[in-house]
C-alpha cells in the first residue's frame, strides 16, 4: 500500500468514527458526542471538497474536459455530507442524518479507492483489495464488541433466572447488578450496530466494483442483513418501548446466533 492509500484509509476510518458519534447522539442525546462527530465529519467534508477541486483543476488544464462517473459519485458523496449538515442545523432528525451519511460513507469509500491524486483510476483488483481490508477491519471490530454484549446477555439471563427462582448462589454476588449489565449490553449494541452497517456497505461496494451483482444473494450478505435487522429491532424495543431486560437479552442472543451462522457459512460463501 502506498502513501496515498494510507491517507485514503485514514479518511475512511475518520468518517466511520464520526458516524459512531452521530449514532451515539441519536440514542443518548449526547451533545458532546454530536460535537465530536460533527468535527470529524467537517474534516472529511473539507478533504472531500479538496479532492473535487483538485480533479476539476486537473481537467481544466487538460486538452479535453472530462468529468467521469467516478467524479459525479464523488460530488454526490460530498453533497450528501453537505445535506447532512443542513439537516443537522435546521431539523432534529438525527436518525435520518445517520443514514444519509451511511450512503455518503459508502460512496466516499468507493470514490477514494477509485481515484488517484493524478486523476487516474486505480487497478480494479487493487481497489477491491483495499475496500476488502476496510470491510474486514470494521466487521471484526463489530463482532468483537457484539460478542462481549452476548456474554453480558447470557450473564443477565443467569442473574434474572436466579432472582426469579429465588435460587441465589454465593458466586452470583460477583456479578454486576441487572441494571449495570443491561446498560453495558446496550452500549455494546450502540457501537457494534453502526459498525456492522458500515461493514455491510463496504461489502456491497466491493460487489459493485467487481460487477458481481449475483453475489447480493450470497448467504453471508443475507445473514448480515438479518442480523442487522434484529439488532435494529433490539435498539427500537429498548429505546422506544422500554422492554424488560430479559426479553431484550433474548433478542440480543437471537441476533448474535445469526452472526454465528454468518461466520460458519464462510465455507459456503463466495464473498471473502
Blueprint (SSEs and pairs):
Elements: H1 3-28, H2 31-60, H3 69-90, H4 94-112, H5 124-165, H6 178-210, H7 219-239, H8 245-264
Transmembrane segments: 6-28, 40-58, 70-88, 95-113, 133-159, 188-209, 215-236, 248-265
Domain Cytochrome c assembly protein: 72-260
GO molecular function: heme binding
Account of the 3D structure:
With about 270 residues, the chain is mainly alpha-helical. It has 2 domains: about 5-120; about 130-270. It has helices at about 5-30, 30-60, 70-90, 95-110, 125-165, 180-210, 220-240, 245-265. Helix 1 runs antiparallel to helix 2 (about 30-60) and helix 6 packs antiparallel against helix 7 (about 220-240). Residues about 115-120 have low confidence and may be disordered.
Q: What's the structural domain tally?
A: 2
- The class by helix and strand makeup works out as mainly alpha
- Whole-number radius of gyration? 21 Å
How much helix, percentage-wise, in residues?
over 70%
| Fraction of residues in β-strands | under 5%
Transmembrane segments: 6-28, 40-58, 70-88, 95-113, 133-159, 188-209, 215-236, 248-265
Protein name: Protein HemX
GO biological process, one term: cytochrome complex assembly
Domain Cytochrome c assembly protein: 72-260
Question: Which descriptors would you attach to this protein?
Answer:
272 residues; mainly alpha; 2 domains; 8 helices; 78% helix; globular; Cyt_c_assembly; transmembrane helix
Amino acid at each position: 500500500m502506498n502513501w496515498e492509500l494510507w491517507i485514503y484509509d485514514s479518511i475512511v476510518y475518520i468518517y466511520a468514527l464520526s458516524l459512531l458519534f452521530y449514532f451515539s447522539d441519536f440514542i443518548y442525546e449526547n451533545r458532546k458526542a454530536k460535537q465530536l462527530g460533527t468535527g470529524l465529519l467537517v474534516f472529511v467534508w473539507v478533504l472531500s471538497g479538496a479532492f473535487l477541486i483538485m480533479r476539476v483543476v486537473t481537467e481544466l488544464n487538460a486538452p479535453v474536459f472530462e468529468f467521469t462517473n467516478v467524479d459525479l459519485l464523488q460530488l454526490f458523496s460530498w453533497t450528501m455530507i453537505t445535506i447532512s449538515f443542513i439537516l443537522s442545523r435546521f431539523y432534529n432528525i438525527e436518525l435520518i442524518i445517520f443514514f444519509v451519511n451511511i450512503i455518503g460513507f459508502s460512496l466516499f469509500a468507493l470514490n477514494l479507492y477509485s481515484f488517484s491524486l493524478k486523476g487516474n483510476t486505480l487497478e480494479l483488483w487493487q481497489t477491491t483489495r483495499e475496500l476488502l481490508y476496510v470491510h474486514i477491519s470494521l466487521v471484526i471490530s463489530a463482532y468483537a464488541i457484539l460478542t462481549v454484549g452476548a456474554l453480558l446477555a447470557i450473564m443477565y439471563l443467569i442473574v434474572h433466572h436466579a432472582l426469579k427462582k429465588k435460587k441465589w448462589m454465593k458466586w452470583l454476588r460477583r456479578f454486576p447488578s441487572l441494571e449495570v449489565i443491561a446498560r453495558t449490553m446496550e452500549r455494546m449494541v450502540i457501537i457494534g450496530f453502526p459498525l456492522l452497517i458500515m461493514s455491510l456497505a463496504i461489502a456491497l461496494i466491493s460487489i459493485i466494483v467487481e460487477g458481481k451483482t449475483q453475489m447480493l444473494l450470497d448467504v453471508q450478505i443475507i445473514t448480515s442483513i438479518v442480523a442487522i435487522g434484529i439488532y435494529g429491532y433490539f435498539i427500537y424495543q429498548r429505546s422506544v418501548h422500554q422492554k424488560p431486560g430479559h426479553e431484550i437479552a433474548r433478542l440480543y442472543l437471537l441476533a448474535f446466533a445469526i452472526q454465528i451462522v454468518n461466520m460458519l457459512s464462510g465455507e459456503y460463501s463466495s464473498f471473502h
